[in-house]
Design a protein that fits this description.
The protein is α+β, with helices and mostly antiparallel strands and 160 residues long. Helix content is 24%, strand content 38%. The two termini are 29 Å apart.
Amino acid sequence: MLSTLTASSKYFEDFTPGEVYRHARGKTVTEMDNVMITNMVMNTAEGHFNEHLMKGNEIFGQRVVFGGINISMVIGLAAQDTAANAIAELGMDKIRLRHPVVHGDTLYAYSEVLSAEAAADRDDAGVVIFRHWGVNQDDRLVFQGERRVLIKRRSHWGEK
């Protein structure tokens, strides 16, 4: 089942394995996104900064956006629906950058609930594992990964 979400206040109990969400917002990647953040994390790869060099690159033909930015944008677009009641980010793995992103591409996010299990050490929250993926404006898969999140239980934190 594919649902479109927007800023929901989903608690642990609201996430059902097998659900798939298309998150409502998209984000166009600007040159500022790539250059500013890539500089801040000291990633000096010429593929992100040297337009002259990349114009001659047979594969890309232009600068490419740092993968960490693509991951952050997709997770950020998904977060309004998957992290509103998060207590802790527990981990992220199985990260794959599948297709290059360039300035001007617009990214969209999707999420699938892989599992929702009781937390081992607390009764006020549960652990949800999401598979997130992002596509560009041409529906090309640019990122996928799995994320584990500790999320509040409505029974302890929500409205009564």
